[in-house]
Design goal:
It contains 23 helices and 13 strands. It is of the alpha/beta class. Strand 12, helix 14 and strand 13 form a beta-alpha-beta unit. The chain binds adenosine-5'-triphosphate. The site of adenosine-5'-triphosphate has 14 residues, from helix 3. One of its GO terms (biological process) is double-strand break repair via homologous recombination.
């Protein structure tokens, strides 16, 4: 009963959402917990309520200073004593106040948590710590989509904070990442709460496009319709150049669009974020820098212009849509040239494992783009959730009528061509061969292919591209070539 009254008193909510109560009970009982729940499902409450009941401080590790500042502000408005410790903290007495147990919730960056002197922890332990929450816990894992080296060091807190329950929280974690979080935080027999990843109110759609001004015009026309129907839109781009170009095109037709990317100053980014939250902007055009902590309930459309770098990040970015539960849509527009960015993304890797992880998640995002079957099923199964039906009825592949035709001959030729390329080339070369390209590389493979292909089927031009989008090339390639398939 105390839990419900605390919820009512500070948050004004009458009931807990699924999983929240049991997680809070386990934490209050001193048990380590791993919480994997969809974006917007209410994970924050799981670590915000225990300190209010236990009357001890909750330590929350969070990766972003701006996110911590927003959360501290929101908690203060609810009458909860909260503060953050980071390089951006200007209140010099904040650390001393924290040691004295003056805060219910204390946010810290991982660096701060690892480098603050042990005496800080010993003092705080005497006043009382009820939990250490590691938010965005997937950052711990090299197999996650947003690995951060500082997160890997958090296990050190274990030796100092004996008997304090640790809670890892994330919206996106495959089984491998979940195991990594448990191991890395040295959790002992954790309570594991895994909610459904299914966001039923979201419609998923994907379309292959040719990049260029005519597509931008199409996009602007589409967004103009959205804007007329109210509700906010986010357009995620893969480059800053695209962000600038699309924002300009939207503004030219009178749409209130703002930008958010890594080359803007902190101040400009904050202003842009705030204007979007306050509905002064109808559309936010951003790179993935516009990330964690976007708690705007009425985002109706999330558009991706370009294939995302991982399926985890796609799920998280598209998940910002429709947090109020109202029908909303997530469209992804990709062109085949997007698939050539693997090496670029791998450049961020600091180990062989991480490079493989980046490559795997990028391949998963590509599969999502190319799949001809239910997108929701693919997304959910990627995160280890079983989706019993083959059709969700709420994605383009389930709702659009598709013409069926027998393309087994074309598929056979494409596979033969891939085999002739020896597995060392990407998808472009086999397609070029089938197109009858005059390129030197294509011609040398063509000699091998001539046995297989009579030169008539120029119609393979289009079909080979479509087949390559439809077939599970990774599996086929393993069967016929035995080598690793790499898109270029
Ligand atoms: N029991 C509840 N009843 C009603 N609303 C709730 C409840 N719990 C949380 N919420 C609301 O749901 C919204 C999402 O909650 P929260 O930000 O904690 O989600 P989250 O799972 O942490 O999402 P993300 O992964 O995107 O950070 C918030 O506006 C929050 O106030």
């Amino acid at each position: 009963m105390e839990m419900e009254s605390t919820l009512k008193e500070y948050y004004g909510f009458s009931t807990f959402r699924p999983y929240q109560k049991e997680i809070i009970e386990k934490i209050l009982g001193g048990r380590d917990s791993l919480v994997v729940m969809a974006t917007g499902s209410g994970k924050s409450l799981c670590y915000q309520v225990p300190p209010l009941i236990a009357k001890k401080t909750a330590i929350v590790i969070s990766p972003l200073i701006s996110l911590m500042q927003d959360q501290v502000m929101a908690l203060k408005q609810r009458g909860i004593k909260a503060e953050h410790l980071s390089t951006a903290q200007t209140n010099l007495s904040a650390q001393r106040n924290a040691e004295n147990g003056e805060y219910d919730i204390l946010y810290m960056t991982p660096e701060k948590a690892c480098f603050v002197p042990n005496s800080f922890w010993s003092r705080l332990l005497t006043t009382g710590i009820c939990l250490v929450a590691v938010d965005e816990a997937h950052c711990i894992s090299e197999w996650g989509h947003d690995f951060r080296v500082e997160y890997k060091q958090l296990y050190k807190l274990r030796d100092v904070l004996l008997d304090v329950p640790f809670v890892g929280l994330t919206a996106t974690a495959t089984e491998k990442v979940r195991n990594d979080i448990v191991d890395s935080l040295r959790m002992k027999d954790p309570h594991v709460a895994i909610g459904s990843f299914d966001r039923k109110n979201l419609y998923y759609g994907v379309k292959s496009i040719n990049r260029g001004s005519s597509f931008v015009d199409e996009l602007v026309a589409q967004i103009s319709k959205h804007v007329a129907n109210a509700g906010s839109t986010i357009v995620y781009c893969t480059t800053i150049k695209d962000v600038q170009e699309i924002t300009k095109s939207l503004c030219e037709v009178g749409i209130k669009a703002g930008m958010y990317h890594g080359q803007m100053s902190n101040k400009a980014r904050e202003e842009s974020h705030r204007s979007f939250i306050r509905d002064e902007l109808q559309v936010m055009v951003a790179t993935i820098a516009f990330g964690m902590g976007i708690d705007k309930p009425d985002i109706r459309h999330v558009i991706h212009y370009g294939c995302p770098k991982s399926l985890e990040s796609y799920y998280q970015e598209s998940g910002r849509c429709g947090r109020d539960g109202i029908t909303s849509d997530c469209w992804l527009y990709f062109s085949r040239s997007d698939f050539g960015k693997a090496e670029f993304y791998c450049g961020e890797a600091s180990s062989v494992n991480q490079k493989k992880a980046i490559m795997d998640s990028f391949m998963a995002a590509q599969r999502y783009c190319m799949k001809a079957t239910c997108r929701r099923k693919l997304l959910l199964e990627y995160f280890g959730e079983t989706f019993a039906s083959n059709k969700c009825g709420n994605c383009d592949n389930c709702t659009d009528s598709k013409e069926e035709s027998d393309i087994s001959r074309e598929a056979f030729l494409l596979m033969g061509c891939i085999q002739s390329c020896g597995g060392y080339w990407g998808l472009n070369l086999p397609i070029d061969v089938l197109r009858g390209s005059r390129h030197r590389n294509a011609q040398s493979v063509e000699v091998l292919m001539i046995v297989l292909v009579d030169r008539r089927p120029r119609r393979l031009l289009k079909t080979s591209l479509t087949i390559s989008h439809t077939m599970d090339l990774e599996k086929i390639f393993q069967q016929i070539g035995g080598r690793c398939w790499v898109f270029n």
